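Hi P.,

Sorry for the delay on this. The queue was packed all week, but I finally got your sequence through. Input first:
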Amino acid sequence: SKEIRDLMAYLRLWANPASDPDLLRIANRPRRGLGAKAIEKIQAAAGDQALLPWLKEHGDSLDTRVKKGVRRLLEDLGEPPQTALEGLERVLETMGYLDFIAAEDAERFEGRQASMEVLIDGADQELALFLEQWGLAATGDKSRGQGLRLATCHAAKGLEFDVVILPGWEEGLFPMIRDGGDPHDQLEEERRLAYVGLTRARHRLVVTWAKRRMLRGQWQDSRPSRFLRDAGLVEAPVRAQAPVHRRAPQVDLDEILDQEGGAYAPGFRVDHEVFGEGLVLAVRGMGPTASIQVRFDSGDKKTIRANFLKPLGYPD
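Then the structure:
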């Protein structure tokens, strides 16, 4: 969605001030008087130099109207935030981005706000780490050789790749119809995202789905997404059927914790002797030294080493 791309552009720009595409995206969102003509003047004056560093050095040399917008932009950006959450809060509240998108499209505001909350939910971590986990850090470093780029369908809009791999195309995962909101509207939005994903490949497209998947401690039989049938990628029609549940074997959680990878995954319940019980949002690293981001029942979010937490298992 547009708002997610805007927010990620701010975060990437803080991480990489030389990212001109991100600067051009957010320069006038919210409005700062930096429309197309102002941007043309800035680009002409900067030549082949990166725009944001040039503006910091030479922004006062521009004409009065453009200079006013540039000063506001530089004040808004300020120093890079320590965490992604700090940056997002700065954009949404201090810069007035929430008010801006509410005025831009009042009818869709609630839905757009909900999509931003998904981004915010796991953002209480170091900025570079957050961008790395989202697969959206624009470093421009090609010296690392071949590799994979991990991105959401939202983030891949407008991009193409020689090979695209789309995992998890199963009913219940994609499309995923959430509680609240209009189911038809949600389905159509998911269908649009499916189209985006399926049309990103230049030469080879690989779509996968699991026959069985463990969800909340239970094995559940899966079936291919209806979007694969609609696209003609599966022959048999996707028939609705009751999922088959099988309880996973009972294991000693303390024993798992001592093994490589630890016992934690998003959605897992944990307990801390000071902060109490909470829900795992994200995991980085393996074993007892892994960094676990937890939203505690008190509402606080903390990143804590695994060996300071007691695993409780998945919620019932």
